[in-house]
Amino acid sequence: MKKVTLLTGTAAILAALSVPAFAQTEMATGANATGVAAIDDRITDIEDDVTDDFDRSSDPDRFGPSDRRQGLFGSMSLQYSGSTGNSESQDLAIAGRVSYNQAPFAQSVGLAIEFGENETGDKDKEEVSAIYDAQYYFNDRFYAFALGRFEIDSLVDGEAEGSETPADVADELTDLRRDGFLGFGPGYRIINNDSTTWRVQAGVGVRYTQTGQQYIDDDSETETGYIASSRLYHRINDMMFVTNDTDYLGSSDADDVITNELGLNFKMSDQLATRVSYTTEYQENREIRTDNTLGVAVVYGF
Q1: Distance of alpha carbon 253 from alpha carbon 120, whole angstroms
Q2: Signal peptide position in this chain (predicted)?
Q3: CB atoms closer than 10 angstroms to residue 204
Protein backbone atom coordinates (compact mmCIF):
# COMPACT_ATOMS: atom_id res chain seq x y z
CA MET A 1 0.00 0.00 0.00
CA LYS A 2 1.06 3.61 -0.36
CA LYS A 3 3.03 4.92 2.59
CA VAL A 4 0.76 6.64 5.09
CA THR A 5 1.95 10.12 6.00
CA LEU A 6 1.73 11.42 9.51
CA LEU A 7 -0.43 14.37 8.39
CA THR A 8 -3.60 12.29 8.68
CA GLY A 9 -6.48 12.25 11.10
CA THR A 10 -4.69 9.52 13.02
CA ALA A 11 -1.60 11.62 13.50
CA ALA A 12 -3.73 14.66 14.27
CA ILE A 13 -5.27 13.05 17.33
CA LEU A 14 -1.89 11.76 18.46
CA ALA A 15 -0.50 15.26 18.19
CA ALA A 16 -3.52 16.60 20.05
CA LEU A 17 -2.85 14.22 22.90
CA SER A 18 0.62 15.67 23.30
CA VAL A 19 -0.43 19.32 23.02
CA PRO A 20 -1.51 19.87 26.65
CA ALA A 21 1.95 20.33 28.14
CA PHE A 22 2.61 20.16 31.85
CA ALA A 23 3.51 23.49 33.37
CA GLN A 24 7.17 23.99 34.19
CA THR A 25 7.89 25.72 37.48
CA GLU A 26 11.08 27.66 38.13
CA MET A 27 12.43 26.63 41.52
CA ALA A 28 13.31 29.52 43.79
CA THR A 29 16.54 29.88 45.72
CA GLY A 30 16.40 27.76 48.85
CA ALA A 31 14.17 25.09 47.30
CA ASN A 32 16.65 22.32 48.10
CA ALA A 33 17.04 23.18 51.79
CA THR A 34 13.31 23.58 52.40
CA GLY A 35 12.36 20.34 50.65
CA VAL A 36 10.46 22.10 47.87
CA ALA A 37 12.77 20.71 45.17
CA ALA A 38 12.24 17.10 46.34
CA ILE A 39 8.47 17.45 46.01
CA ASP A 40 8.90 19.15 42.63
CA ASP A 41 10.97 16.17 41.46
CA ARG A 42 8.19 13.83 42.55
CA ILE A 43 5.64 15.91 40.61
CA THR A 44 7.86 15.60 37.54
CA ASP A 45 8.07 11.82 38.00
CA ILE A 46 4.28 11.55 38.05
CA GLU A 47 4.00 13.74 34.94
CA ASP A 48 6.58 11.57 33.16
CA ASP A 49 4.63 8.41 34.02
CA VAL A 50 1.47 9.90 32.49
CA THR A 51 3.17 11.06 29.29
CA ASP A 52 4.88 7.66 28.94
CA ASP A 53 1.45 6.04 29.17
CA PHE A 54 0.23 8.18 26.27
CA ASP A 55 3.40 7.57 24.25
CA ARG A 56 3.07 3.80 24.52
CA SER A 57 -0.56 3.92 23.44
CA SER A 58 0.30 5.79 20.24
CA ASP A 59 2.36 2.78 19.01
CA PRO A 60 4.89 4.69 16.87
CA ASP A 61 5.76 1.54 14.87
CA ARG A 62 2.21 0.84 13.76
CA PHE A 63 2.85 2.09 10.18
CA GLY A 64 6.20 0.38 9.77
CA PRO A 65 9.70 1.81 9.36
CA SER A 66 9.04 4.47 6.70
CA ASP A 67 9.44 7.42 9.08
CA ARG A 68 12.30 6.12 11.15
CA ARG A 69 15.45 8.16 11.51
CA GLN A 70 18.23 6.70 9.38
CA GLY A 71 21.86 6.12 10.24
CA LEU A 72 23.68 5.81 13.54
CA PHE A 73 22.49 7.75 16.60
CA GLY A 74 22.14 7.35 20.34
CA SER A 75 22.73 8.85 23.76
CA MET A 76 24.75 8.21 26.91
CA SER A 77 24.26 9.46 30.46
CA LEU A 78 26.18 9.24 33.73
CA GLN A 79 25.11 10.05 37.26
CA TYR A 80 27.28 9.97 40.39
CA SER A 81 26.57 10.96 43.96
CA GLY A 82 28.77 10.59 47.05
CA SER A 83 28.21 11.72 50.60
CA THR A 84 30.43 12.11 53.68
CA GLY A 85 29.79 13.21 57.24
CA ASN A 86 27.29 11.38 59.42
CA SER A 87 27.13 8.68 56.77
CA GLU A 88 29.28 7.80 53.81
CA SER A 89 27.80 6.35 50.64
CA GLN A 90 28.18 6.60 46.90
CA ASP A 91 26.16 5.64 43.86
CA LEU A 92 27.11 5.46 40.18
CA ALA A 93 24.74 4.91 37.26
CA ILE A 94 25.67 4.74 33.58
CA ALA A 95 23.09 4.26 30.85
CA GLY A 96 23.07 4.49 27.09
CA ARG A 97 21.30 3.47 23.94
CA VAL A 98 22.69 3.18 20.41
CA SER A 99 20.50 2.70 17.33
CA TYR A 100 21.34 2.01 13.72
CA ASN A 101 18.69 2.18 11.02
CA GLN A 102 19.37 1.57 7.34
CA ALA A 103 16.50 1.12 4.87
CA PRO A 104 14.56 -2.02 5.91
CA PHE A 105 16.84 -2.91 8.84
CA ALA A 106 16.59 -1.28 12.27
CA GLN A 107 18.33 -2.28 15.47
CA SER A 108 19.16 -0.80 18.86
CA VAL A 109 21.25 -1.76 21.88
CA GLY A 110 20.71 -0.44 25.40
CA LEU A 111 22.96 -0.75 28.45
CA ALA A 112 22.57 0.21 32.12
CA ILE A 113 25.25 -0.15 34.80
CA GLU A 114 24.51 0.63 38.45
CA PHE A 115 26.86 0.48 41.43
CA GLY A 116 26.23 1.58 45.01
CA GLU A 117 27.75 1.54 48.49
CA ASN A 118 25.81 2.12 51.71
CA GLU A 119 26.84 4.22 54.70
CA THR A 120 29.06 1.43 56.05
CA GLY A 121 30.99 1.11 52.80
CA ASP A 122 29.39 -2.20 51.85
CA LYS A 123 28.10 -2.71 48.32
CA ASP A 124 24.31 -2.53 48.12
CA LYS A 125 23.95 -2.54 44.33
CA GLU A 126 26.03 -4.01 41.52
CA GLU A 127 23.82 -4.58 38.50
CA VAL A 128 24.35 -4.65 34.74
CA SER A 129 21.45 -4.82 32.26
CA ALA A 130 21.42 -4.92 28.46
CA ILE A 131 18.68 -5.09 25.82
CA TYR A 132 18.62 -5.67 22.07
CA ASP A 133 15.82 -4.95 19.59
CA ALA A 134 15.87 -5.46 15.82
CA GLN A 135 13.47 -5.64 12.87
CA TYR A 136 14.06 -6.40 9.21
CA TYR A 137 11.26 -5.54 6.78
CA PHE A 138 10.98 -7.67 3.66
CA ASN A 139 8.08 -5.51 2.43
CA ASP A 140 5.36 -3.25 3.85
CA ARG A 141 3.70 -6.16 5.64
CA PHE A 142 6.16 -8.98 6.31
CA TYR A 143 9.12 -8.58 8.69
CA ALA A 144 11.42 -10.48 11.04
CA PHE A 145 12.23 -9.46 14.60
CA ALA A 146 14.71 -10.22 17.37
CA LEU A 147 14.47 -9.37 21.06
CA GLY A 148 17.17 -9.83 23.66
CA ARG A 149 17.64 -9.08 27.35
CA PHE A 150 20.41 -9.92 29.84
CA GLU A 151 20.67 -8.93 33.51
CA ILE A 152 23.39 -9.58 36.10
CA ASP A 153 23.06 -8.93 39.84
CA SER A 154 26.51 -9.61 41.23
CA LEU A 155 25.38 -9.25 44.85
CA VAL A 156 23.37 -12.46 44.53
CA ASP A 157 26.14 -14.94 45.30
CA GLY A 158 24.39 -17.36 47.65
CA GLU A 159 26.56 -16.26 50.57
CA ALA A 160 24.25 -14.80 53.20
CA GLU A 161 25.65 -12.87 56.15
CA GLY A 162 25.17 -14.29 59.65
CA SER A 163 23.04 -11.33 60.73
CA GLU A 164 20.42 -12.00 58.08
CA THR A 165 17.13 -13.73 58.86
CA PRO A 166 16.27 -17.23 57.58
CA ALA A 167 14.02 -15.59 54.98
CA ASP A 168 16.96 -13.49 53.75
CA VAL A 169 19.10 -16.61 53.46
CA ALA A 170 16.41 -18.39 51.44
CA ASP A 171 16.01 -15.38 49.16
CA GLU A 172 19.76 -15.22 48.59
CA LEU A 173 19.74 -18.78 47.34
CA THR A 174 16.66 -18.47 45.10
CA ASP A 175 17.10 -14.94 43.72
CA LEU A 176 18.39 -14.67 40.18
CA ARG A 177 22.03 -13.73 39.70
CA ARG A 178 21.77 -13.92 35.93
CA ASP A 179 18.67 -13.75 33.76
CA GLY A 180 18.75 -13.60 29.96
CA PHE A 181 16.37 -14.09 27.07
CA LEU A 182 16.84 -14.10 23.30
CA GLY A 183 13.91 -14.56 20.92
CA PHE A 184 13.33 -14.16 17.21
CA GLY A 185 10.69 -14.91 14.61
CA PRO A 186 8.44 -13.52 11.86
CA GLY A 187 5.83 -10.78 12.01
CA TYR A 188 3.03 -9.76 9.68
CA ARG A 189 0.82 -6.68 9.28
CA ILE A 190 -2.66 -8.04 8.66
CA ILE A 191 -4.22 -4.57 8.33
CA ASN A 192 -2.28 -1.41 7.56
CA ASN A 193 -4.26 1.69 6.58
CA ASP A 194 -4.74 5.17 7.97
CA SER A 195 -7.58 4.18 10.34
CA THR A 196 -6.73 0.61 11.37
CA THR A 197 -3.49 -1.25 11.84
CA TRP A 198 -3.04 -4.75 13.16
CA ARG A 199 0.20 -6.69 13.31
CA VAL A 200 1.01 -10.06 14.85
CA GLN A 201 4.32 -11.76 15.51
CA ALA A 202 5.45 -15.05 17.04
CA GLY A 203 8.73 -16.78 17.58
CA VAL A 204 10.92 -19.05 19.61
CA GLY A 205 13.40 -18.02 22.26
CA VAL A 206 15.96 -19.23 24.77
CA ARG A 207 16.02 -18.21 28.43
CA TYR A 208 19.14 -18.55 30.57
CA THR A 209 18.97 -18.21 34.38
CA GLN A 210 21.27 -18.71 37.33
CA THR A 211 20.17 -18.48 40.98
CA GLY A 212 22.38 -17.89 44.01
CA GLN A 213 22.39 -21.60 44.77
CA GLN A 214 23.30 -22.45 41.18
CA TYR A 215 26.14 -19.94 41.34
CA ILE A 216 27.56 -21.80 44.34
CA ASP A 217 27.14 -25.10 42.53
CA ASP A 218 28.61 -23.69 39.30
CA ASP A 219 25.35 -24.53 37.56
CA SER A 220 22.70 -22.75 35.47
CA GLU A 221 19.48 -23.47 33.59
CA THR A 222 18.63 -22.99 29.91
CA GLU A 223 15.15 -23.57 28.55
CA THR A 224 13.26 -22.99 25.32
CA GLY A 225 10.62 -20.28 25.33
CA TYR A 226 7.80 -19.23 23.03
CA ILE A 227 6.59 -15.70 22.43
CA ALA A 228 3.60 -14.27 20.57
CA SER A 229 2.26 -10.72 20.35
CA SER A 230 -0.58 -8.78 18.78
CA ARG A 231 -0.88 -4.99 18.34
CA LEU A 232 -4.22 -3.55 17.24
CA TYR A 233 -4.89 0.15 16.61
CA HIS A 234 -8.18 1.59 15.37
CA ARG A 235 -9.12 5.24 14.91
CA ILE A 236 -12.82 5.66 15.66
CA ASN A 237 -12.90 9.33 14.64
CA ASP A 238 -10.69 12.41 14.76
CA MET A 239 -11.20 12.61 18.52
CA MET A 240 -10.81 9.00 19.62
CA PHE A 241 -8.81 5.83 19.00
CA VAL A 242 -8.65 2.43 20.67
CA THR A 243 -5.73 0.02 21.11
CA ASN A 244 -5.46 -3.60 22.22
CA ASP A 245 -2.07 -5.16 23.00
CA THR A 246 -1.69 -8.87 23.73
CA ASP A 247 1.49 -10.74 24.71
CA TYR A 248 2.16 -14.40 25.47
CA LEU A 249 5.33 -15.89 26.96
CA GLY A 250 5.66 -19.60 27.59
CA SER A 251 8.36 -22.22 28.05
CA SER A 252 8.83 -25.91 28.66
CA ASP A 253 9.36 -25.50 32.41
CA ALA A 254 8.36 -22.01 33.60
CA ASP A 255 4.78 -20.80 34.01
CA ASP A 256 2.96 -19.38 30.99
CA VAL A 257 2.24 -15.65 31.17
CA ILE A 258 -0.40 -13.80 29.12
CA THR A 259 -1.06 -10.06 29.28
CA ASN A 260 -3.70 -8.00 27.50
CA GLU A 261 -4.14 -4.23 27.64
CA LEU A 262 -7.21 -2.55 26.17
CA GLY A 263 -6.89 1.21 25.90
CA LEU A 264 -9.26 4.03 24.91
CA ASN A 265 -7.67 7.37 24.07
CA PHE A 266 -9.63 10.50 23.35
CA LYS A 267 -9.21 14.27 23.12
CA MET A 268 -11.90 16.08 25.08
CA SER A 269 -10.67 19.54 24.05
CA ASP A 270 -7.53 21.22 22.75
CA GLN A 271 -6.23 21.29 26.33
CA LEU A 272 -7.58 18.02 27.73
CA ALA A 273 -6.74 14.45 26.72
CA THR A 274 -7.64 11.23 28.51
CA ARG A 275 -6.58 7.58 28.34
CA VAL A 276 -8.45 4.75 30.04
CA SER A 277 -6.86 1.30 30.07
CA TYR A 278 -7.79 -2.12 31.40
CA THR A 279 -4.94 -4.61 31.82
CA THR A 280 -5.33 -8.32 32.47
CA GLU A 281 -2.37 -10.52 33.43
CA TYR A 282 -2.68 -14.29 33.59
CA GLN A 283 0.03 -16.46 35.12
CA GLU A 284 -0.17 -20.20 35.26
CA ASN A 285 0.06 -22.15 38.54
CA ARG A 286 -0.49 -19.36 41.03
CA GLU A 287 -3.31 -19.25 43.57
CA ILE A 288 -5.13 -16.39 41.85
CA ARG A 289 -4.12 -16.74 38.25
CA THR A 290 -5.55 -13.48 36.87
CA ASP A 291 -4.82 -9.90 37.96
CA ASN A 292 -6.83 -6.99 36.54
CA THR A 293 -5.80 -3.34 36.63
CA LEU A 294 -7.81 -0.26 35.65
CA GLY A 295 -5.74 2.76 34.68
CA VAL A 296 -6.74 6.35 33.97
CA ALA A 297 -4.34 9.00 32.67
CA VAL A 298 -5.35 12.62 32.13
CA VAL A 299 -3.32 15.46 30.61
CA TYR A 300 -4.57 19.03 30.99
CA GLY A 301 -2.64 22.07 29.86
CA PHE A 302 -3.52 25.74 30.25
Answers
A1: 41
A2: 1-23
A3: 12
